[in-house]
Amino acid sequence: MTDIFQSTQPIYSQLADRINRKILRGELKPGDKLPSVRDLALQVNVNPNTVQRTYRELEGMEIVESKRGQGTFVTENQEILNTMRERLKQDEISQFVKGMHEMGYTDEEIEAGLQHFLHNQKGDQA
Amino acid sequence: MTDIFQSTQPIYSQLADRINRKILRGELKPGDKLPSVRDLALQVNVNPNTVQRTYRELEGMEIVESKRGQGTFVTENQEILNTMRERLKQDEISQFVKGMHEMGYTDEEIEAGLQHFLHNQKGDQA
Amino acid sequence: MTDIFQSTQPIYSQLADRINRKILRGELKPGDKLPSVRDLALQVNVNPNTVQRTYRELEGMEIVESKRGQGTFVTENQEILNTMRERLKQDEISQFVKGMHEMGYTDEEIEAGLQHFLHNQKGDQA
Amino acid sequence: MTDIFQSTQPIYSQLADRINRKILRGELKPGDKLPSVRDLALQVNVNPNTVQRTYRELEGMEIVESKRGQGTFVTENQEILNTMRERLKQDEISQFVKGMHEMGYTDEEIEAGLQHFLHNQKGDQA
DNA sequence: GTGGTCTAGACCACA
DNA sequence: GTGGTCTAGACCACG
């Protein structure tokens, strides 16, 4: 039994990632209030406990502050956000390179491929 | 109800992708026989119909050939494999760049980030 | 409704504290295996999830390492243990001083009281 | 079955302690009337019998006096209050030292730790 | 309303 | 066996 098709990463962690990226993209700005635990649970159709755990995770990373009785807010500490941004960038690159290596591409081919792509994108991306 | 967490891409398509990559990686070589529909269905724990559809998909791309009564085989046509390889490469790159753009990185930063990563990997990849 | 008598600190956190102190006291040494989640849950009569959370908390502090399928173990990193030791010491002192202040004692009286106690203990402690 | 988490000390005794400390802190002054048994029972959400027993305990220590038909009052005998104050101080110290010993600290370290703490507190207490 | 804790019980992955 | 995740639903404390 392998069950390759439900991504193995836990939901709370996927959710945390999504929120991180929303913050980076600027959809959520420092000081903004996140949806309440229960609301987000309904939105993404998971158990409130799971959202709770997501928020707790984000709090651990100091990306978010939870205020009992008030809500959960994006940190106003820009430095932490920058750190997270850098970390996610490295993750993304590392994952990309790993995937390309798996397909048998060399570092040089990867670099060339990227450059070619970047210099030719005018609206022909997927 | 959003259900963001079971990746939206259909299973047969995910399966096709996985097989493609196995071929590129050399785990499956031109002329190799793929597992029978029933066997693969058991292995990855999906319905045989889904595997059937996956194979049909791959046949459509001329990456595999089904020989009635014998099984399904990786094409020996190297040109087609090269084309697929190229297509997957473009997909990978495009997806990577899209992700980086979403995080607000410019093309220049992406290129620089990749180069930095490639020139510094000694064993510190994820 | 005040309910002053169920210590407000969450169970998982009390449990974590108890385990910390066991480690400091040397009842649990670096590399030792903690009881399994389920066993400890039975021992202290709480839900396994609560113990799970305790272990997770300790893992976050890097005091403990959980190895799936094997168990949870006290870290062998002595430096972390020293740090924790120092932290708990400060907590204990701070709490003591706070309590004494609440009873109206001055810093000088606290210091004198402690010295008197330490120099007179021969077996007459509580 | 251990049930470590509901502090093992009986409630009436915890309550007595709390009242003692209120008196020491000056929240309750000599001659002040304590709440009626029923009122206090409601306030702290315990059975009136428990409060009754608490008051009897305090009476035994001569810290309060019950005047039939009028209520329960803090003693005006300063000497007794001083004695209690001293006793609670010793308790506090003894408990503190015991805790530090449990963590493996020597008497010298305890004294040094306290002094360091007292001389450095500017607002950085817990 | 908000976040936080806890239980009960199920199911998963690793070994 | 081990730890880890998730759901359902209850209850708490803060405001």
Helix/strand layout:
Four copies of one chain form a homotetramer.
Chain A: H1 11-25, H2 37-44, H3 48-60, E1 64-67, E2 71-74, H4 78-102, H5 107-120
Antiparallel strand pairs in A: 1-2
Helix pairs in contact in A: 1-3, 2-3
Chain A binds a DNA duplex (15 and 15 nucleotides) through residues 3, 8, 10-12, 36-38, 46-50, 52-53, 55-56, 66-72.
Structural account:
Four copies of one chain form a homotetramer. With 126 residues, chain A is mainly alpha-helical. Chain A folds into two domains: 11-76, Winged helix-like DNA-binding domain superfamily/Winged helix DNA-binding domain (Arc Repressor Mutant, subunit A, Orthogonal Bundle); 79-125, no CATH class. Helices cover 60% and strands 6% of the residues of chain A. Chain A is built from five helices and two strands. Chain A has helices spanning 11-25, 37-44, 48-60, 78-102, 107-120; strands spanning 64-67, 71-74. A two-stranded antiparallel ribbon of chain A has the order 1-2. In chain A, a hairpin with a 3-residue loop joins strand 1 (64-67) and strand 2. In chain A, helix 1 (11-25) packs across helix 3 and helix 2 (37-44) crosses helix 3 (48-60). At the A-B interface, helix 1, helix 4 and helix 5 of A face helix 1, helix 4 and helix 5 of B. Chain A binds a DNA duplex (15 and 15 nucleotides) through helix 3.
